[in-house]
């Protein structure tokens, strides 16, 4: 078992890879009462076109299948629901599906062995029937409707759809109602068998536990099972052009105030900067340009274009970075112009850069105050970068103004999409 | 964890010393009896205070200052808890061992500036900031309707009893017009002088050292105020259930079912009701979740919520509007089963396990430590150890009996159909 010091915060991470390929990351914290364990597949809503295990031809599945699969994993052969098991044990459990990830997790203050074995067992024991698949369609349909009524969810999903042409990130994570209706149990098994092999999965444990004991439970559990050999997952190659699908769209929704989302599709530059650092620099950039302490925020409020500082999101598709800047505003045209102007001639002083760097350092420390946040952070890092940074001191020292400036100069901001969402005209 | 409470003439100080966290969390709570006409005013004031102050007279300058203090942050919120109104200011800062010497003192001093030296000119708030804040609050109040769950909950409460504090919203756009720079300043001074103040601190602190810092930095005046009981008591109970359906452009209907609760004993509100709520709709193994979602696929979300101070129990689900009648039948069946010996030992023990787990994890975050401390200020609660013992004394018979105090009052649905 590898033991790694996480510098700056002086925590320890343990790492091991089992013979079946399952990777395990553990960051114990004896000062808290609870333990959180997540069991994650490197598989999400964008994995809809691939060669299913044991087959030869590329196949396309309905959108939303990863999310549907996640739902179905909780039902067991005897009809009971896994969540009821955790409830009875005084634990809580849940799961989520993202563009590239499906993660199942529980939190408990005791009965760790039982809860951990249940996690490993239920995720590795799928049970899909025509009947139970049909039953889930009603529940997921209501979940889709729930998100339809959330303006922020619509803004985000529609922005992806306007920006990306070929990449499946353009599709909703949960799919549409018609997609859900088309899913069969065979589809679910094919997806499961391809992506839920231990070599494509990992476990993250944080909170209060003994790493040796945790590893022993997982090892014994896995050694008691038979797995098919590891095979290479063959995904459809995505060729996503730099152009956006649609530069401007106006939509009407049941909102009280108009909203705007400006999305930049930026080809990932061919330089030697690691992806994780690229994301750090991106966050520094957008916080500098649009955060609460920015000149932009102050000016836009004075002009009356915004009432609260704009929000932003940074997504990486491995070919592109997607900067999505979102605001409630009655002045979408003016605000979009101001945002676009902000990306021309970016000037950041050394003092400002050092403040942002200080902020980054602080956030790393704050993160380790929450075992739940650490768990989620590790999951996100493994999915996005394939690793979790432990030498925080080294990372901090490597964040340099000159490199930041070079990177900003190399980013291509010429492709963007604008989505304006107005209140329904008949309401006005 | 070591705990110390100081009951001073000007505020109560609650300190929790622990080396679990790398940060120090401090909360200042301003409390008084809730008055509907003051809600919007308090919202405006709390916003005004955290956006700027005399020393940092703009949002940008104040944010810059907080960033320079290693990303320390100050948050505000205004909440109604039963019959009490609370304005809360939270300061979160890294322990000095991760920053530099006296970084925490500088954070405290900045918070002091925000509270005691707001951006005023003569006897009124600075107009520029004031106008911006009013715009922001107006927008926030308008945007509340976009959250269909909380909007529906407000509408449910307004229909259950339009007079009691239960029905009060987070603010009223029509009240904003009446708020001026001058009367806001007058109210602010009154709040500073007459609200009941509680200060909570969680971190690796020295009690005496930190107490002295707070005493020296925060010049709260002495006060002798009384705040009435937090509980909202219902006096009107009806035999006939009110059913209200309202239409809006929504994809999913939101159904909210409100029950009024008759006055509970201390044992009942501390122990019996939380278990009742858990069994009814407080977890995935609960009656509501199993019946509406798992067995009948009628919802993605279905649960219940017990609001202790308001003496209400709410059941809510996101559904297809065409299934309203079926869902209502299932809810009534679930409620009925709580009072007719259909609660099993397994359900009761599961609920108890949850209750105990929640007690065990209180000290796992500063937020929950402070929340628990504030709850103790509101209600006459037993110690954590006493609670762990007494919860095991609750019987199925207690659950059955309390059902008679829970009166189904109103059903509200927001839907998008004809």
Give an account of the 3D structure.
The mean pLDDT of chain A is 95. Helix content of chain A is 41%, strand content 20%. Chain A is an alpha+beta fold and 428 residues long. Chain A has 15 helices and 14 strands. With 418 residues, chain B is of the alpha+beta class. Chain B has helices at residues 39-51, 59-68, 103-116, 127-143, 148-160, 173-176, 181-194, 207-217, 266-281, 287-295, 324-339, 345-360, 366-378, 384-390, 396-402, and strands at residues 2-7, 12-17, 23-33, 73-81, 84-94, 120-121, 124-125, 196-203, 242-247, 253-261, 302-307, 312-319, 406-415. The longest helix of chain B is centred in the first third of the chain and has 17 residues, at 127-143. The termini of chain B are far apart. At the A-B interface, helix 2, helix 4, helix 10 and helix 12 of A face helix 2, helix 4, helix 10 and helix 12 of B.
- Largest beta sheet of chain A, briefly? 7 strands, mixed
Strand order of the largest sheet of chain B: 1-2-8-3-5-4
- Give the radius of gyration of chain B: 23 Å
Strand content of chain B: 15-25%
Shape of chain B: globular
Count of DSSP H/I helices of chain B: 15
In total, the number of strands of chain B is 13
Query: Uncertain segments of chain A of ≥5 residues (pLDDT<50)?
Result: none
Distance between the termini of chain B: 58 Å
The chain-level structural class of chain B is alpha+beta
Anisotropy-based shape of chain A: globular
How do the strands line up in the largest sheet of chain A?
1-2-3-9-4-8-7
User: How large, in whole angstroms, is the Cα Rg of chain A?
Assistant: 23 Å
Helix content of chain A: 40-55%
Mean pLDDT of chain B: 95
Helix content of chain B: 40-55%
Oligomerization: heterodimer
Biggest interface, CB < 8 A: A-B, 60 and 61 residues
């Amino acid at each position: 078992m590898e033991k790694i010091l996480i510098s700056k915060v002086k925590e320890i991470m343990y790492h091991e890879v089992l013979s079946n390929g399952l990777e395990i990351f553990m960051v114990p914290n004896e000062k808290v009462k609870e333990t959180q364990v997540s069991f994650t597949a490197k598989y999400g809503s964008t994995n809809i076109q691939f060669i299913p295990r044991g087959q030869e031809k590329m196949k396309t599945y309905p959108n939303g299948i990863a999310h549907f699969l996640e739902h179905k994993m909780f039902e067991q052969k005897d009809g009971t629901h896994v969540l009821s098991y955790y409830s009875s044990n005084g634990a809580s459990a849940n799961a989520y599906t993202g563009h590239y990830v499906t993660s199942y997790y529980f939190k408990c203050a005791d009965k760790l062995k039982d809860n951990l074995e249940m996690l490993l067992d239920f995720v590795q024991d799928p049970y899909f029937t025509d009947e139970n698949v049909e039953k889930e369609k009603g529940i997921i349909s209501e979940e889709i409707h729930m998100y339809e009524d959330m303006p922020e969810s619509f803004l985000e999903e529609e922005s992806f759809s306007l920006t990306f042409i070929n990449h499946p990130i353009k599709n909703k994570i949960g799919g549409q109602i018609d997609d859900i209706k088309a899913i069969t149990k065979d589809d679910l098994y094919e997806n499961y068998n391809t992506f839920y092999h231990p070599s494509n999965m990992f476990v993250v444990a944080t909170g209060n536990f003994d790493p040796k004991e945790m590893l022993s439970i997982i090892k014994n559990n896995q050694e008691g099972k038979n797995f098919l050999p590891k095979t290479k997952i063959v995904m459809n190659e995505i060729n996503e052009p730099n152009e956006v699908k649609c530069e401007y769209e106006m939509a009407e929704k049941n909102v009280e105030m108009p909203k705007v989302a400006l999305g930049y599709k930026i080809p990932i530059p061919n330089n030697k900067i690691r992806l994780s650092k690229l994301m750090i620099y991106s966050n520094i950039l957008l916080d500098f340009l649009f955060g609460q302490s920015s000149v932009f925020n102050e000016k836009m409020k004075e002009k009356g274009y915004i009432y609260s500082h704009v929000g932003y999101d940074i997504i990486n598709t491995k070919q592109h970075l997607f900067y999505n800047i979102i605001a409630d505003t009655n002045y979408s045209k003016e605000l979009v112009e101001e945002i676009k102007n902000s990306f021309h001639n970016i000037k950041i002083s050394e003092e400002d850069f050092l403040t942002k760097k200080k902020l980054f350092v602080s956030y790393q420390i704050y993160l380790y105050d929450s075992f739940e946040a650490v768990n989620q952070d590790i999951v996100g890092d493994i999915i996005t970068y394939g690793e979790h940074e432990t030498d925080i001191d080294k990372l901090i020292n490597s964040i340099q103004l000159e490199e930041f400036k070079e990177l900003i100069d190399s980013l291509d901001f010429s492709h963007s999409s604008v989505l304006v969402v107005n209140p329904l005209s008949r309401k006005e | 964890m070591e705990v110390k409470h100081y009951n001073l003439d000007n505020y109560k100080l609650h300190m929790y010393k622990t080396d679990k966290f790398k940060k120090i969390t401090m909360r200042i709570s301003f409390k008084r009896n809730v008055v509907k006409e003051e809600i919007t005013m308090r919202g405006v004031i709390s916003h005004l205070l955290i956006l700027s102050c005399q020393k940092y007279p703009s949002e940008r300058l104040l944010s810059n200052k907080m960033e320079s203090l290693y990303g320390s942050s100050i948050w505000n919120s205004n909440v109604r808890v039963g019959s009490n109104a609370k304005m809360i200011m939270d300061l979160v800062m890294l322990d000095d061992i991760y920053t530099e010497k006296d970084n925490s003192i500088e954070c405290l001093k900045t918070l002091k500036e925000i509270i005691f030296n707001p951006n005023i000119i003569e006897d009124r708030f600075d107009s520029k900031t004031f106008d911006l804040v009013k715009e922001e609050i107006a927008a926030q109040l308008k945007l509340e309707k976009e959250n269909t769950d909380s909007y529906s909950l407000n509408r449910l409460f307004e229909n259950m009893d339009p007079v009691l504090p239960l029905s009060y919203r987070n603010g009223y756009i029509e009240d904003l017009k009446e708020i001026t720079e001058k009367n806001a300043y007058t109210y602010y001074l009154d709040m500073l002088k007459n609200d009941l103040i509680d200060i909570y601190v969680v971190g690796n602190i020295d009690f005496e050292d930190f107490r002295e810092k707070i005493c020296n930095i925060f010049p709260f005046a002495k006060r002798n105020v009384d705040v009435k009981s937090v509980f909202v008591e219902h006096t009107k109970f009806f035999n006939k259930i009110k059913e209200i359906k309202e239409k809006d452009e929504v994809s999913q209907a939101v159904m909210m079912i409100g029950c009024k609760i008759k006055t509970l004993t201390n044992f009942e509100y501390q122990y019996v009701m939380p278990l009742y709520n858990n069994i009814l709709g407080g977890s995935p193994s609960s009656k509501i979740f199993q019946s509406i979602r798992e067995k009948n696929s009628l919802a993605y979300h279905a649960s219940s919520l017990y609001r202790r101070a308001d003496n209400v129990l709410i059941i809510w689900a996101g559904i297809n509007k065409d299934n309203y009648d079926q869902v209502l039948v299932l809810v009534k069946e679930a409620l009925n089963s709580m009072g007719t010996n259909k609660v099993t030992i397994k359900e009761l023990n599961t609920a108890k396990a949850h209750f105990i787990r929640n007690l065990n994890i209180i000290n796992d975050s500063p937020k929950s430590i402070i929340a628990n401390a504030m709850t103790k200020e509101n209600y006459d609660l037993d110690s954590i150890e006493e609670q762990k013992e007494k919860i095991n004394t609750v019987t199925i018979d207690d659950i059955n009996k309390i059902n008679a105090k829970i009166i189904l009052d109103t059903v509200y649905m927001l839907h998008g159909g004809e």
